[in-house]
Amino acid sequence: MQTTGGGDLDYDVLIIGSGPAGLSAALQLGRSLRSVLVCDNDEPRNGPAAEAHGYLTRDGIAPQELRQLGREEVAKYGGEFRDSQVTDVTRDEDGFASTFDSGETVTSRKVILATGVRDVLPDIDGFEELWGSGVHHCPYCHGYEVRDEPLGVLVNNQHMLEYAKLIYNLSEDLVVFTDGNDIFDKETISAFVERGIGIEEEPITALNGSDDKLESISLADGRDVARHALFYPPPMEQHSEIPEQLGLEVNQAGLVDTTRSQHGIGFTSVEGLFVAGDASSGAPPSIASAVADGYAVGTTVNMELSKKDFEEGWR
Ligand SMILES: Cc1cc2nc3c(=O)[nH]c(=O)nc-3n(C[C@H](O)[C@H](O)[C@H](O)COP(=O)(O)OP(=O)(O)OC[C@H]3O[C@@H](n4cnc5c(N)ncnc54)[C@H](O)[C@@H]3O)c2cc1C
How many C-beta neighbours within 10 Å does residue 211 have? Predict the structure, then answer.
């Protein structure tokens, strides 16, 4: 038996985004007998990568396969799917009305935004083409695969110096690129040089590669520096415009500020609307964190529904 307690709404919960966060929330809700619709416009953040790493029991799986497995598990508990974009979410006293790009609207008691983030890539020739194959955002996800190779790290502001240290143990052949930004004081330069790390302070003009592999990095002075992978954690922005439409607070890191209470996590300033996964300030960006956050937000939403159903005597 699945419920849509107490009203004429189409679903208990609409989940926007069928990445690890949305699917994990859907699994918990389906197993709690909630009617769930999960919708997605097929632009997963890790879509450019051939393999996903670091998620226990699925290390190295193709991102699309992981999602497919997730969908199959959610479907076992009655979860429904719709492959289209949600363009608009409005709230009234009964719940939410969400509109698809087709113009059709569905109603639900709660909404979970699991819409993820977009990476804002620098405007450098070849960067976007090599993103996810020769250029990586995260050493935990893709560092092992390029260990001991000639590596680069792009450090274009002071805060990223710590990130460069994360790449240090992956290879003895490491070059830090500042892309023409004035990052290093003398002390920092000697600390890097003493450890055998190269520093290139010229602006980068292009990343060169073929067959999805980085081969070299061209600099403004005309030199090409041979590298097999470049690491860079770009700034992020919300993937979807819905948080902005609903007036949700987005912090400096580009994440929706969510709160926790003794009843759960993922709450936003709009009652009944929750955020899970990369899009939320509550989840460090990775598949494992998105799954964990989706689980916690899914159970939080079920708790909210259960309290209401109990108060009203709905089944
Ligand atoms: C290149 C790359 C490689 C990565 N590799 C790894 C890795 O190996 N291991 C790891 O742990 N992490 C990796 N990550 C991070 C990982 O991809 C994210 O942490 C994870 O996908 C977050 O899951 P999520 O469900 O929050 O968001 P996502 O997986 O991004 O899913 C969000 C979904 O919401 C959909 N959506 C957005 N707006 C709408 C809308 N309005 N209507 C309908 N659907 C919408 C999107 O199409 C998308 O499918 C990688 C990231 C990048 C950029």
Answer: 7
CA–centroid distance for 158 within its chain: 24
Pick from 219, 220, 215, 244: which is nearest to 230 by CA?
215
Residue nearest to atom 27 of ligand 1 (CA): 116
Residue from 27, 37, 42, 46 to probe ligand 1 pocket by mutation (most atoms less than 8 Å from CB): 46
Mutate to test the pocket of ligand 1, among 115, 128, 133, 295 (most ligand atoms within 8 A of CB): 115
Q: Which CATH class is domain 11-119+235-312?
A: alpha beta
CATH code 3.50.50.60 region(s) in the chain: 11-119+235-312, 127-231
CATH number for the segment(s) 127-231: 3.50.50.60
SS3 43: coil
Within 6 Å (CB) of ligand 1, which residues are found?
Answer: 16-22, 39-46, 48-49, 52-55, 85-86, 114-116, 119, 132, 137, 141, 239-240, 242, 277-279, 285-288, 290
One digit per residue, the tens of pLDDT, for the chain of length 315 reads 566 666 789 999 999 999 999 999 999 999 999 999 999 999 999 999 999 999 999 999 999 999 999 999 999 999 999 999 999 999 988 899 999 999 999 999 999 999 999 999 999 999 999 999 999 999 999 999 999 999 999 999 888 889 999 999 999 999 999 999 998 899 998 999 999 999 999 999 999 998 889 999 999 999 999 999 999 999 999 999 999 999 999 999 999 999 999 889 999 999 999 999 999 998 888 999 999 999 999 999 999 999 999 999 987
DSSP H stretches of helix in the chain? 20-31, 63-76, 127-130, 139-142, 161-168, 186-194, 242-245, 287-312
